[in-house]
Amino acid sequence: ISPLNGKSALSIHVLNTSYHTKGHVSYFIKDESMPLLFCGDSLFVGGTGRFFEGDAADCYAALYEKIMSLPLNTEIYPGHEYTLSNLAFAHTLEPQNKALRDKIEWSKMQREKGSPTVPTRLSEELEFNPFLRCNNETIANAIGLSGADVVEVLAEVRRRKDNF
């Protein structure tokens, strides 16, 4: 099997995803059959990186304007394995979310076998990652910010995760 699937070149796009740290970038490999995102600390399974040098507006730009505009079948390779902790926090916000409950069970089984929980897919993350669901009233209601701006909801979700 050829790593380039018979192609002579690979197209890699560098995305400015600065919010965790200034200058943070993610690498998007545009391939119609299997697009890939290597995102470091911008996005984890069920979570995101902390706001060390950026803020909620920077995070919004990285997640909602860049990462969420990628193809839904994009495989996401984060920089760390924080899945179970992230999903436990997400469950406090959306305990009735079936996709989230299913991902928690699958992730527990993976870790018990010593297997990783990455990669993930953008389509999956949109179903249970609270940081990608701040535009959903369920998340806003869960934190008492119904009708609030997405950036405001994102900031509050991050604050709560930091204290989880």
Automatic annotation (TrEMBL):
Record keywords: Hydrolase, Metal-binding, Zinc
InterPro entries the UniProt entry points to: HAGH_C (IPR032282), RibonucZ/Hydroxyglut_hydro (IPR036866)
Domain Hydroxyacylglutathione hydrolase C-terminal span(s) in chain numbering: 81-164
Gene3D superfamilies for this protein: Ribonuclease Z/Hydroxyacylglutathione hydrolase-like
GO MF, one annotated term: hydroxyacylglutathione hydrolase activity
Tagged with keyword Hydrolase: yes
Protein name: Hydroxyacylglutathione hydrolase C-terminal domain-containing protein
Organism (species): Aplanochytrium stocchinoi
